[in-house]
């Protein structure tokens, strides 16, 4: 009876916990809009690449001729979302023309063998047992189904470069030749997605030339472009007022080092979760720094140790200023004022303005700070400065520890 009573109490406790969490305030309206597999209604800064795809696939709709295209670019530049959005629109455009066309997106890093890729393709059309068919047979059965139902397929092979590195080029060769060999010419179009087109060197000359005629390369996003992308997602994912302009700009500055929209969206999601954990109604720059540190901290203690005394004092002045203000950026004039106060605290004679600039420049070279043009309303060489990679609270604590050890 006693154990039963404890079990009932635990059950009630869990229900109460769940209800408490559901009742808590949140900065989010719909956090799923920040996830990698979400396809937005509009693609920001990828209009021209979408237009290129439309031109390449025009014959697929007009003459029902299968097409092959290769989309390349580094991580987070929108290759996957571009392909998925185009697949949606291509399917819709085909339907308007009384053409049955499906879009299937296969992640070749997850479906990492030829059999798994072909099984996913076959499962879309046929109910086949998971074992008993070779990849070639699965492709043949799928192609037969397309032919029988007068249907067409746009097949996206995401991370195909990784797949070919692991398995060789035979699957891609079979897919590009499927129409010729199986008597279903033009039924299957291929959208290959890779980080670098150099993987094509391992393909036979015919398959290589098939893709080399249609290559769309996506450049990295700039900080300004990332701000546009994030602002569109913020409207969908966050409640009004939950994200200030400077906080968004800080996320963009961090992600712009790699031109990576995926990193920017992950930072937004993690920073929002940290704000929720603290019961805040707004995401702060410090939440962003904490989120960045969770993903991968880049502040190296050895770099802080190598700084000269006054370089450490200037960095401490910046960190304290940002901690006190709660802002994403501090102006050089504000840092200079804070530096003079800290010099008094540590009984040091402050260095001049030119020397201060040199200290900040060295800190930027080490990746400890970011220096930016101040923008409108500031004169001379004044810059705005940020600490992008770690919480300033942690930076203050580490610098104070190092300065104490110097005494």
Low-confidence sequence ranges: none
Whole-number mean pLDDT: 88
Tally of helical runs: 17
Radius of gyration: 27 Å
Find the structural class using helix and strand composition: alpha/beta
Global morphology: elongated
Order of strands in the sheet with most strands: 2-3-4-1-5
The CATH class assignment of the domain at 47-217 is Alpha Beta
Query: How would you sum up the major sheet?
Result: 5 strands, parallel
DSSP strand count = 8
Q: Tell me the fraction of residues in β-strands, as a range.
A: 5-15%
CATH architecture of the domain at 47-217: 3-Layer(aba) Sandwich
Q: How far is it from the N-terminal to the C-terminal residue, by CA?
A: 65 Å
Helix content: 55-70%
Order of helices and strands: HHEHEHHEHHEHEHHHHHHEHHEEH
Assigned CATH superfamily of the domain at 47-217? P-loop containing nucleotide triphosphate hydrolases
Summarize the SSE layout with pairings:
Elements: H1 2-23, H2 47-62, E1 68-72, H3 79-96, E2 100-107, H4 114-125, H5 135-148, E3 151-158, H6 160-167, H7 170-182, E4 188-194, H8 205-212, E5 215-217, H9 223-237, H10 245-255, H11 261-277, H12 285-296, H13 301-306, H14 309-325, E6 330-331, H15 332-345, H16 353-365, E7 370-373, E8 383-386, H17 392-406
Helix pairs in contact: 2-3, 4-5, 5-7, 9-10, 9-11, 10-11, 11-12, 14-15, 14-16, 14-17
Write a structural description:
This protein has 407 residues and is an alpha/beta fold. Among the domains are: 47-217, P-loop containing nucleotide triphosphate hydrolases (Rossmann fold); 301-406, Orthogonal Bundle (Arc Repressor Mutant, subunit A). 57% of the residues lie in helices and 10% in strands. It has 17 helices and 8 strands. It has helices at 2-23, 47-62, 79-96, 114-125, 135-148, 160-167, 170-182, 205-212, 223-237, 245-255, 261-277, 285-296, 301-306, 309-325, 332-345, 353-365, 392-406; strands at residues 68-72, 100-107, 151-158, 188-194, 215-217, 330-331, 370-373, 383-386. A 5-stranded parallel sheet has the order 2-3-4-1-5, with helices on both faces. Helix 4 (114-125) packs parallel to helix 5 and helix 9 (223-237) packs across helix 10.
